[in-house]
Amino acid sequence: MRALLVVNPQATTTTPAGRDVLAHALASDVKLEIVETCYRGHAADAAAQAVVDGFDLVVAHGGDGTVNEVVNGLLRDGIAGAPMLGIVPGGSANVFAGALGLPRDPVEATHRLLQAIEHGTSRRIGLGKVQNRWFTFNAGVGLDADVVAGVERKRAKGREASPLLYLTTALRSYAKLLRTPARFTVEIPGEDAFTDLGMVFVSNTDPWTYFGDKAIRLNPSTGFDGGLGLSALRTLRVPTVARYVTQILAHGNPKGGNLVRRDDVSYVKVKCEEPANLQVDGDFLGTTTEVEFRAVPEALTVCI
Predict the structure, then answer these.
(1) Which of 17, 27, 155, 296 has the fewest beta carbons under 10 Å from its own?
(2) How far apart (Å, rounded) are the C-alpha atoms in residues 35 and 123?
(3) What is the pLDDT of residues 86-126, one digit of tens each?
(4) What distance in Å separates the CA atoms of residue 22 and residue 87, rounded to the nearest whole number?
């Protein structure tokens, strides 16, 4: 088996020693080549080249951003003939790995990957797609994208990603939305459009993300074998948001009259009068006034 190991040396928990251990372990079972990323989009370019060069497996060692880039590189020219994806987490959240049931610890994940290679086990999973960009676990417009954009700005100034940074950025973003509320219209198959929604989250699986070691569950019935999950609030008033957050933290199965929730839809169309921020897998994509999130079944094979 020919395998490419794509390492992001800037990822939160990625170290040279860990990379060397992983590479040595993989090299005992596969014909291995290694690429260390050095610019944004490098992981995607390396994965796309691996497709051209006929590799059987591409292993992403980094955070969710690295995994997202590798996935987009593997599927740049379509889902047919793409190599398998392997994952060894090296970021702060590692949501995709956790949703797949993989260890979020890199040493344990390496052992799991070696077992999968040895026994030839894999799983075909569905992904989400928006604006020609694939996403593995979540996407959204409005509040969550505001948080992602805010965190990216602070990280560019040298701040380290942490649960505290995300929390403080989320509180500031929410306070801003209270002053100038967003208004979204959402369309899903077979139902009338929902209007005047305050925020819109889209899930490709469960959990939606992690806060430290705490899984944040918005659509617990959404998974890689079905469609997308939608979780949207009709209002951002403090009592509604407080009740919603409390339910998420308490049992991860939010309900209520102000919540629009669907766990298995083929697409989610979102429109807004004013440009709103858009994010996929924790990566800020810019602003939009109209966007469609689509579920793509059985898009990728994961070595698991």
Answers:
(1) 17
(2) 25
(3) 999 999 899 999 999 999 889 899 999 999 999 999 999 99
(4) 11
CA of residue 299 relative to chain centroid, distance: 15
- In angstroms, rounded to a whole number, what is the distance separating the alpha carbons of residues 141 and 294? 14
Q: Give 212's pLDDT tier (boundaries 50, 70, 90).
A: confident
No. of helices (H) and no. of strands (E), the chain:
8, 16
Q: How far apart are CA 282 and CA 144, in angstroms?
A: 9
pLDDT tens sequence across 8-44: 999 888 989 999 999 999 999 999 999 999 999 999 9
In 160-203 the beta strands, taken as DSSP E runs, fall at 184-187, 194-197, 199-203
Beta pairing partners, 187: 269
Q: Which residue has the tokens 């050095």?
A: 38
DSSP-derived letter for residue 85 is E
Contact 214, 249 (CB under 8 A): yes
**In DSSP terms, which residues pair with 108 in a beta bridge?**
none
Strands 184-187 and 194-197: antiparallel
